[in-house]
């Protein structure tokens, strides 16, 4: 932060963020409008839900996870009916279900109220995430946050699940790290991991850049606070509701290949090895190979990569090798893709692929059992074009980011004279360890 910015009154510093906040609120409102066909009763008819492209997990899980009568993790239900999310999301669901029960006596009315309250919370998280992203990007690239505020893929996917909560926490973590507030960054990282598991990939990004710069104390402080925050929110459930708490981890381990994953294509087509081997093992090995490649790139690049670039590559690798790739996962990647490489052409191409997948998955489900409405849906080959559209467009963005890392003069962020707007202690830090120094 410059001296001029530090001395500016709070109100003056907040003014540039007001339009972004309003546009993000408009994006949140549009996301609500997209789901109005379901909100007005369509979600009680599965065909109508898919043909109106308004599916959400929020309403059906109110009934299917016993939120109407019991509390997550402590519910006396079969193991496969326990809430399959980490504890922060489970507690968000619990608090909102309490409020819904207090406001309404009828269970159907409670579920609708639960949906509305959840949407309000997620809309607030979207606005907060956009404002935090703008602060992370810095004055010269503040408007890049519009991609997160109102891009079509974000609007379409915003209220499928609770992912925007983790998005706001992740952006808060990045801003705290940028401001060199390692304790706060650690707490927010720990809470983010206890909300959705994907922020765990950012630990690897921080570690690699720490290894290159030898800024160990900030890294260790952050990791200590992250571990502490994660333990604080998880320990009560581990002690008093073990079965409910471990449901997420068992589910993640045991679930098979699911919608959106490239592994589903290989299985469906019967490819040797890729379509026959255990998907959990394939995914972990593939992710490990990609992470090793990212590590080599980070330590061998002629100039230290930016933190957002490594976070993006790690998160994209995680998504591409996962057993499931739900439509809402686009919310994970948008802010990091934009921070890593704010070039509109590949971003627009990827957004188009995400929108095509959003349409394709619901049309494909129409043609699958139990509905089997081939007259309304699409077939296997058409669906898999959407699956590979996402894979290919994200791979293109990853290739451009790798090119920017190997040729820093091509990095549009660094062309403005910035070293690492998200880097915090890494910003302008000299190299202490590179692969070149090992063989020197």
TrEMBL record:
It is a multi-pass membrane protein. GO terms for cellular component: plasma membrane. Belongs to the glycosyltransferase 87 family. It is found in: Cell membrane. GO terms for molecular function: hexosyltransferase activity. Its main location: membrane. The keyword Transferase applies. InterPro entries: GT87, UCP010361. The lineage of its organism: Bacteria, Bacillati, Actinomycetota, Actinomycetes, Streptosporangiales. The keyword Thylakoid does not apply. Keywords: Cell membrane, Membrane, Transferase, Transmembrane, Transmembrane helix. The chain crosses the membrane at residues 14-34, 114-136, 156-177, 184-211, 223-245, 279-301, 307-326, 347-367, 387-406. This is Uncharacterized membrane protein.
């Amino acid at each position: 932060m410059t001296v001029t910015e530090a001395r500016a009154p709070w109100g003056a510093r907040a003014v540039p963020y007001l339009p972004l906040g309003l546009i993000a609120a408009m994006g949140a409102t549009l996301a609500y409008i997209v789901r109005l066909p379901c909100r007005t009763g369509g979600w009680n008819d599965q065909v109508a839900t898919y043909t109106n492209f308004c599916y959400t997990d929020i309403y059906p899980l109110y009934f299917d996870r016993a939120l109407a009568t019991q509390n997550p993790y402590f519910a006396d239900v079969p193991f496969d009916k326990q809430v399959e999310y980490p504890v922060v999301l489970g507690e968000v669901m619990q608090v909102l279900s309490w409020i819904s029960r207090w406001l309404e006596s009828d269970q159907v009315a409670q579920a609708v109220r639960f949906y509305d309250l959840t949407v309000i919370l997620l809309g607030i998280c979207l606005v907060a995430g956009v404002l935090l992203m703008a602060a992370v990007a810095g004055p010269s690239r503040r408007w890049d946050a519009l991609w997160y505020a109102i891009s079509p893929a974000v609007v379409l996917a915003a209220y499928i699940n609770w992912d925007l909560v983790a998005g706001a926490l992740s952006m808060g973590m990045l801003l705290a790290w940028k401001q060199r507030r390692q304790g706060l960054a650690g707490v927010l990282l720990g809470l983010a991991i206890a909300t959705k598991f994907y922020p765990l990939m950012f630990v690897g990004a921080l570690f690699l850049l720490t290894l290159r710069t030898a800024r160990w104390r900030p890294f260790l402080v952050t990791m200590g606070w992250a571990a502490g925050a994660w333990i604080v929110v998880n320990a009560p459930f581990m002690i008093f509701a073990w079965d409910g708490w471990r449901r997420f981890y068992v589910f993640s381990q045991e679930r098979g290949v699911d919608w959106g994953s490239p592994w589903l294509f290989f299985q469906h087509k019967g490819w040797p090895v890729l379509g026959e081997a255990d998907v959990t093992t394939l995914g972990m090995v593939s992710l490990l190979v990609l992470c090793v490649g990212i590590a080599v790139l980070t330590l061998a690049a002629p100039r230290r990569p930016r933190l957002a670039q490594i976070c993006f590559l790690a998160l994209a690798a995680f998504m591409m090798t996962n057993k499931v790739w739900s439509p809402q996962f686009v919310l994970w990647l948008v802010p990091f893709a934009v921070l890593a490489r704010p070039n509109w052409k590949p971003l627009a191409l990827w957004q188009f692929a995400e929108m095509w997948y959003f349409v394709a998955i619901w049309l494909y489900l129409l043609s699958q059992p139990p509905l089997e409405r081939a007259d309304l849906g699409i077939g296997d080959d058409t669906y898999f074009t959407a699956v590979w559209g996402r894979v290919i467009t994200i791979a293109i963005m990853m290739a451009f980011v790798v090119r920017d890392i190997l040729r820093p003069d091509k990095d549009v962020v660094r062309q403005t004279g910035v070293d690492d707007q998200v880097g915090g202690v890494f910003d302008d830090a000299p190299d202490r360890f590179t692969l070149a120094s090992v063989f020197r």
